[in-house]
């Protein structure tokens, strides 16, 4: 089931008349269980939720673990009816009878990601089955409860039965989605002909045929509410879940549906409104920023404000105002922002100076008109400020310059000529491009060297109309803009406005910050226009070059065979190269939202976090071997280098990650380790026997019968030497050395004879224990590797001695069972816990209740030997009561 909101799923589970438990498919961790399930299980919620299902129900693990794994791997439900089960309930062991279903739950890609367990207890019904009336009444009550639950469920439910999917039940919520239709008693496709020949219809048919559930989310369905009404676009979340009869055969389908048309439209509207707001903010001529809270955190900002602050969006969003612009701490803005939030008053300031300190230590003086307006949350509490500002630096400078000129011009008549000369001198010597255009025909009256340099012209253009002086302006907006200044009497301001100007006979694109300031005569009419221009071509081109360089870096990082990432100091990832995207199978947005840390193997997260903390303090990259989950859900080994990037003050400004796949190297190391462990274990047995014979021979030579025993001991010792030689030659085989696999050389021999032959060695090797053999009366021929089977004998009997008390009995049974030869080694040792039995034969696994030394590879090698002979090996044990080990081989048939 896949509903639009999690609370719908929880409501469905909590109100169900049956016990329900939801497990994830990776580790079978319990995520959700209703009260009915906990009551049947006799467990508390804290004993189950967040833990492995088999940790809570270890007493039934052996019986049902393989079944549950089969449900996940084959995507097919399992049903069991009124089965007996011995369960620990409320601290005591009880025999109960239950009916349960393991049902796989698939995601939109068809992959099983959860398992739903539906269970009902039948103990009372089974115990009182002969009381037919009571039993039938109980069954009717359960059916009535289920029927009442379907009627009251918060989602639409319908039940279809048979191959023609006849609708036998719909609840009120389902009927409300199709109010003008008659549903019950009609085939599903007859009552909803709009979905015939669609993939929805095919999915429903497949559920009935395969028994596999299917779900749809936000699915568009063109369907009418009335029987013959016009179709409209509607959106639904719905699931088709198979219903099974007592023989575990599909006899119907449940349809759980929920209309989400309003939700879909609301999400689309919200996304559109958000997009519209962002576009509107970026189109505004003003600089806009939204600041929240006492710490003055930047929540929203438009491109104009970013350009004024000379910052990127990543550098400001979510950061405190004074952290972004620490050089403004001694200026009034922070206190004014807090004042607006405290009092609710609007602050409106004109021509405020704003002083910035550049990276090289120089000062950037600017002027702005700004307004601070309070913002409130949904409860009416003031928690933010809307800042709207206009940079007027060029206008202020121009106005101040013009005021200076005007002051000079309004001096006494005696100084008029001198003032005019000074005015022209000031224009000429000004550090910015300045020109004066006279009248509507825009005659170039005055032009300083800077503006002539910008225009690419000489002083010969003075006295000409601007259109004649700069003919290349034809088709560009400047002449029209100047006409508007004359007509509206309003100044014109522009930043980074592009212009094509002729320099040396060629058109050259330049960028300017310009002010067209009208000059008025005594009648308040525009008589002249002063042009003030600042060439910003170099800055614009530098920014564009930086953008191109960043694009080149991203393309280059996608080509290298290494996964590269970039993150902010707080861990937010800003870049994944194509290698990461291919590895994870996700888009950048999905991978960023999915979370980098969720790809890391859980066992390595803590060490990785500590390494990052140390690297951020020392500035030294943190290098580690880590496992990351790929798109197939497999953990792959990598060398990960997390490099901190520090600024001049030693503060962390970003992380650069370089991650290289070393899975093949790890696998090669594992093969070498396996080989070394196998060699050490196989050579141990003949060395132990040889050492035993030599020690006894040394002891016997001091006694009277030493010479009689010497010939026997030397013969047995030479046999062990030959065995070691054979093993050594096998180990030195190049192909085996490379693969780490054991070598099997089969021949036909008598298994009973092999044990009799080695029994003398057991008495020598294990003199403190009594080893009793019960052997078949007849030969038991097998086709196998004689040395390897002897190694299994030695390992099982050696383990029985190792984990038993001195002088305790050990029994060996060899018998023929049908076409199999079965060997049993039994001891009176310490025994094995039930939870350890299933892992005894894993490589390097050792039980936790012993201090006996060893590598944990003997039983693993024994299993490898027996399985490579087509046989099987297993163990039975009870803690404190000894152990029994068995293995079986096929009897050789002539």
From TrEMBL:
- EC primary class: transferase
Domain called PAC: residue spans = 350-404, 622-674
* Database matches in SUPFAM superfamilies: ATPase domain of HSP90 chaperone/DNA topoisomerase II/histidine kinase, Homodimeric domain of signal transducing histidine kinase, PYP-like sensor domain (PAS domain)
Quote the SMART domains the UniProt record gives.
HATPase_c, HisKA, PAC, PAS
Mind telling me which InterPro entries this protein's record contains? BphY/WalK/GraS-like (IPR050351), HATPase_C_sf (IPR036890), HATPase_dom (IPR003594), His_kinase_dom (IPR005467), HisK_dim/P_dom (IPR003661), HisK_dim/P_sf (IPR036097), PAC (IPR001610), PAS (IPR000014)
Q: How does it sit in the membrane?
A: Multi-pass membrane protein
Residue ranges occupied by any PAS domain in the UniProt entry: 5-75, 549-619
What does the record give as EC number?
2.7.13.3
User: Which reactions is this enzyme annotated as catalysing?
Assistant: ATP + protein L-histidine = ADP + protein N-phospho-L-histidine
**Annotated localization:** Membrane
Does Transferase count among this protein's keywords?
A: yes
What the entry lists under Pfam families is as follows: HATPase_c (PF02518), HisKA (PF00512), PAS_3 (PF08447), PAS_4 (PF08448), PAS_9 (PF13426)
List keywords of the entry alphabetically.
Answer: ATP-binding, Kinase, Membrane, Nucleotide-binding, Phosphoprotein, Transferase, Transmembrane, Transmembrane helix, Two-component regulatory system
Q: Does the keyword Nucleotide-binding apply?
A: yes
Where would I find the Histidine kinase domain in this sequence? 678-893
- The protein, known as: histidine kinase
């Amino acid at each position: 089931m896949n509903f639009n909101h999690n609370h719908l799923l929880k409501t469905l589970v909590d109100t169900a008349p049956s016990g329900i438990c939801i497990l994830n498919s990776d580790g079978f961790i319990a995520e959700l269980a209703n009260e009915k399930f906990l009551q049947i299980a006799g467990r508390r919620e804290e004993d189950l939720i967040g833990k492995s299902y088999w940790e809570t129900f270890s007493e039934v693990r052996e019986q049902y673990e393989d079944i549950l794994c089969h449900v996940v791997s084959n995507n097919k439900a399992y049903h069991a009816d009124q089965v007996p089960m011995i369960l620990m309930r409320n601290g005591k062991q009880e025999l109960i009878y239950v009916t349960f279903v393991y049902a796989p739950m698939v995601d939109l890609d068809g992959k099983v990601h959860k398992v739903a367990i539906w269970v009902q207890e039948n103990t009372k019904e089974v115990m009182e089955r002969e009381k037919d009336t009571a039993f039938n009444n109980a069954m009717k009550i359960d059916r009535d409860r289920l029927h009442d639950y379907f009627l009251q469920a918060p989602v639409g439910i319908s039940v279809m039965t048979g191959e023609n999917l006849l609708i036998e039940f719909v609840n009120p919520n389902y009927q409300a989605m199709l109010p003008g239709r008659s549903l019950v008693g009609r085939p599903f496709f007859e009552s909803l002909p709009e979905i015939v020949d669609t993939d929805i219809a095919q999915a429903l048919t497949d559920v009935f045929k395969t028994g596999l559930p299917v779900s749809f989310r936000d699915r568009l369905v063109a369907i009418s509410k009335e029987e013959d009404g016009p179709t409209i676009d509607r959106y639904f979340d719905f699931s088709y879940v198979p219903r099974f009869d007592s023989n575990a055969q599909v006899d119907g389908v449940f349809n759980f549906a929920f209309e989400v048309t309003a939700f879909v439209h609301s999400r689309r509207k919200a996304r559109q409104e958000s997009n519209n707001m962002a576009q509107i903010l970026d189109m505004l001529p003003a600089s806009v920023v939204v600041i929240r809270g006492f710490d003055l955190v930047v929540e929203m900002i438009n491109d104009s404000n970013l350009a004024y602050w000379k910052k990127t969006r990543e550098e400001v969003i979510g950061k405190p105002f004074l952290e972004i612009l620490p050089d403004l701490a001694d200026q009034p803005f922070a206190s004014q922002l807090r004042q607006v939030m405290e009092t609710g008053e609007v602050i409106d300031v004109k021509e405020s100076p704003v002083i910035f300190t550049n990276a090289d230590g120089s000062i950037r003086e600017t002027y702005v008109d700004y307004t601070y307006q309070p913002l409130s949350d949904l409860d009416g509490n003031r928690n933010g400020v809307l800042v709207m500002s206009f940079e007027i630096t060029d206008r202020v400078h121009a106005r101040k310059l013009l005021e200076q000129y005007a002051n000079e011009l309004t001096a006494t008549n005696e100084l008029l000529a001198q003032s005019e000369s000074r005015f022209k001198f000031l224009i000429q010597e000004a550090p910015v491009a300045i020109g004066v255009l006279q009248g509507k025909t825009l005659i170039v009256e005055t032009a300083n060297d800077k503006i002539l340099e910008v225009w690419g012209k000489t002083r010969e253009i003075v006295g000409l109309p601007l259109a004649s002086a700069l003919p290349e302006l034809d088709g560009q907006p400047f002449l029209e803009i100047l006409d508007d200044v004359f007509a509206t009497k309003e100044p014109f301001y522009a930043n980074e406005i592009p212009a094509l100007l002729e320099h040396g006979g060629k058109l050259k694109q330049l960028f300017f910050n310009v002010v067209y300031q009208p000059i008025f005569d005594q009648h308040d009419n525009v008589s002249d226009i002063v042009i003030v221009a600042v060439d910003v071509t170099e800055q614009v081109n530098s920014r564009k070059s930086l953008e191109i360089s960043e694009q080149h870096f991203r393309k280059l990082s996608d080509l290298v065979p290494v996964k590269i990432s970039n993150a902010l100091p707080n861990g937010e990832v800003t870049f994944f190269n194509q290698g990461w995207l291919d590895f994870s199978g996700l888009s950048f947005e999905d991978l960023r939202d999915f979370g980098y840390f969720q790809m890391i193997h859980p066992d390595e997260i803590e060490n990785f976090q500590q390494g990052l903390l140390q690297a951020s303090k020392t500035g030294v990259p943190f290098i580690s071997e880590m496992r990351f989950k790929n798109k197939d859900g497999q953990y792959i080994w990598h060398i990960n280098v997390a490099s901190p990037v520090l600024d001049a003050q030693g503060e962390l400004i970003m992380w650069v990650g370089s991650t290289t796949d070393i899975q093949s190297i790890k696998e090669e190391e594992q093969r070498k380790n396996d080989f070394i462990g196998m060699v050490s274990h196989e050579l141990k047995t003949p060395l132990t026997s040889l050492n035993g014979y030599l020690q006894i021979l040394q002891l016997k030579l001091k006694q009277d019968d030493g010479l009689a025993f010497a010939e026997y001991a030397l013969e047995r010792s030479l046999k062990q030497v030959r065995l070691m030689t054979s093993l050594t030659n096998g180990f030195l085989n190049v192909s085996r050395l490379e693969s780490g696999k054991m070598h099997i050389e089969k021949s036909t021999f008598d298994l009973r004879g092999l044990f009799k032959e080695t029994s003398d060695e057991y008495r020598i090797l294990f003199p403190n224990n009594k080893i009793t053999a019960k052997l078949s009366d007849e030969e038991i021929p097998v086709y196998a590797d004689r040395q390897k089977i002897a190694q299994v004998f030695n390992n099982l009997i050696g383990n029985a001695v190792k984990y038993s008390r001195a002088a305790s009995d050990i029994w060996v049974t060899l018998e023929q069972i049908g076409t199999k030869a079965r060997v049993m080694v039994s001891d009176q040792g310490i025994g094995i816990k039930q939870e350890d039995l299933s892992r005894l034969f894993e490589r390097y696994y050792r039980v936790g209740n012993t201090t006996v030394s060893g590598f944990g590879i003997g039983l693993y090698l024994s299993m490898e030997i027996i399985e490579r002979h087509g046989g099987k090996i297993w163990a039975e044990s009870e803690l404190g009561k000894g152990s029994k080990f068995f293995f079986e081989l096929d009897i050789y048939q002539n």
